[in-house]
Design brief:
The chain has about 300 residues and is mainly alpha-helical. It has helices at about 10-30, 35-55, 65-75, 80-100, 130-140, 145-160, 165-170, 200-210, 215, 235-250, 255-270, 275-280, 285-290, 295-310; strands at about 175-180, 185, 195. A three-stranded antiparallel sheet has the order 1-2-3. α3 packs antiparallel against α4 (about 80-100), α5 runs antiparallel to α6 and α6 (about 145-160) packs across α11. The termini are far apart.
């Protein structure tokens, strides 16, 4: 991911290219970020470097807080959303901290950079009745006993039972499933490992997939992947997304696998789970990320208040 498009003289281009190549290695090898995260970080930093060259800087020594702020101001003038600007501010801070730590700059200007607070939009979720209807539709599609139908049912049940991310689901291996304890081992962002429980319906669906269907799709090169595609390779995220969107037609909704994650978290809170437990289940690094789901439990609190308080 060498920044050929960076607007600079040949000497500047070479210096910044080496710098960015080193930074990409840091993100990949040392921080063990996913390809998607590396691509996002690199894209933002390359844009920052291009801004620096337009300001006439040959290297990072000229990078200061004014340069960072002018870069973000440029983003705002281009109509970038607050969430995009917040992400880019984060990318800049991570980059400048690394640059200072590795001796490329003396001080860290990113430490002084405030982050625009993004508007938190309420995630789309299914009600419990609609969720049952979606899972029932997946069960009906698996009634013919086809390997793909049984696989899809297990995927839908597991997404709802655990609230895991679609990338996490696709990365699960057979040995990550502890059927006796009904727990799966998941590797989240930054390869952080956590154990996530699942319920009886998901367990039954998983057993049906592992015992009666996965062997039919298995090929010599399938490896340990829990879920396989129709040709025997590890299932990919696009296939899972298509499946979820197709099953949502049962309730005339348009939710992604991430919508299933939102739904699982919301139903856990509505059922009385505490916020810390939901944070741990979802693998959120910050409790603030989990708190976005509390908007739904407000409806439950309102109903309880109106039923119980004498002056409601």
């Amino acid at each position: 991911m060498v920044p050929d498009e960076v607007s600079a003289t040949p000497s500047r281009r070479e210096d910044f290219a080496v710098l960015l190549a080193d930074y990409e290695r840091h993100l990949t090898a040392e921080r063990d970020l996913s390809k998607h995260s590396v691509r996002a970080y690199m894209g933002d930093v390359m844009d920052l470097i291009e801004h620096l060259t337009r300001l006439g800087h040959d290297d990072l020594s000229g990078l200061d807080i004014r340069g960072l702020r002018s870069w973000l101001a440029k983003q705002q003038s281009l109509g970038k959303s607050r969430s995009t600007m917040a992400r880019r501010a984060t990318a800049a801070r991570v980059f400048t901290a690394w640059a200072q730590r590795t001796g490329r700059i003396e001080t860290d200007p990113g430490a002084l950079l405030a982050s625009p607070k993004p508007h938190k939009s309420l995630p789309g979720v299914l009600g419990q009745a609609d969720t049952r209807a979606v899972l029932d539709a997946a069960a009906v599609a698996a009634d013919d006993g086809s390997p793909v139908g049984l696989r899809d049912l297990a995927i839908m049940e597991l997404l709802y039972a655990t609230g895991i991310r679609v990338g996490e689901l696709c990365a699960i291996d057979v040995d990550d499933v502890d059927a006796g304890r009904r727990v799966i081992r998941v590797f989240g962002k930054g390869r952080k490992e956590r154990s996530v429980p699942y319920g009886v319906p998901a367990g039954v669906a998983l057993d049906g997939w592992l015992d009666g269907a996965r062997p039919k799709l298995f090929r010599p090169g399938s490896g340990p992947a829990l879920f396989l595609g129709a040709r025997g390779a590890r299932i990919d995220q696009r296939t899972v997304r298509r499946l979820v969107h197709a099953r949502m037609e049962a309730v005339d909704a348009d939710l992604s696998p991430h919508g299933m994650r939102h739904t699982a978290a919301t139903h856990l809170l509505e059922g009385g789970a505490d916020l810390r437990s939901v944070q741990e289940l979802l693998g959120h690094a910050s409790l603030a990320t989990t708190q976005i789901y509390t908007h739904v439990s407000g409806d439950r609190l309102r109903r309880a208040y109106e039923q119980a308080h004498p002056r409601a």
